[in-house]
Amino acid sequence: MRVSSGVATLVVLVLLVVGVWPAKGDLSPSQCEQEKRLLVNACRAVVFGQKPSPNCCERVRVTHAECVCPSVTPKLAALINVQRTISQIQGCGRTVPRNFKCGSVTTPP
């Protein structure tokens, strides 16, 4: 089964977004777009079943939630396995907060 690049990009965002902490301070729309682009480029292989690379993990640790959470719609959230996502994020050395709401995804208590 082939995944289109647009869907793959959004799925990467959804896969990694629940491990992204809220930022302190405001980012411009162009800064948010740049962060999303860097995250997608670094973590694209995750969509195809690979483990996050060191570069992907670094992006997961530094990307701001307010830049990616608006992309997490119920339709996209239905495509992910939240437990698998949490395991991947924790494998990157990031703690996933309980009951963290990002778009339409809330992490388990």
Topology record:
Elements: H1 5-17, H2 29-47, H3 54-62, H4 65-68, H5 74-77, H6 82-91, E1 101-102, E2 105-106
Helix pairs in contact: 1-2, 2-3
Task: Give a quick precis of the structure.
With 109 residues, the protein is mainly alpha-helical. It is 54% helix and 4% strand.
Overview of this structure, please?
With 109 residues, the protein is mostly helical. A hairpin with a 2-residue loop joins strand 1 and strand 2. It has helices at 5-17, 29-47, 54-62, 65-68, 74-77, 82-91, and strands at 101-102, 105-106. The chain contains six helices and two strands. Residues 1-7 have low confidence and may be disordered.
Structural class: mainly alpha
**How many DSSP-defined strands?**
2
Helix share, percent = 40-55%
- Major β-sheet, in short? 2 strands, antiparallel
How many helical stretches?
6
Global Rg: 13 Å
Order the strands across the largest sheet as they lie in space. Answer: 1-2
Low-confidence stretches: 1-7
Q: In whole angstroms, how far apart are the ends?
A: 34 Å
Shape: globular
What attributes does this structure have?
109 residues; mainly alpha; two-stranded antiparallel ribbon; globular; Bifunc_inhib/LTP/seed_store; signal
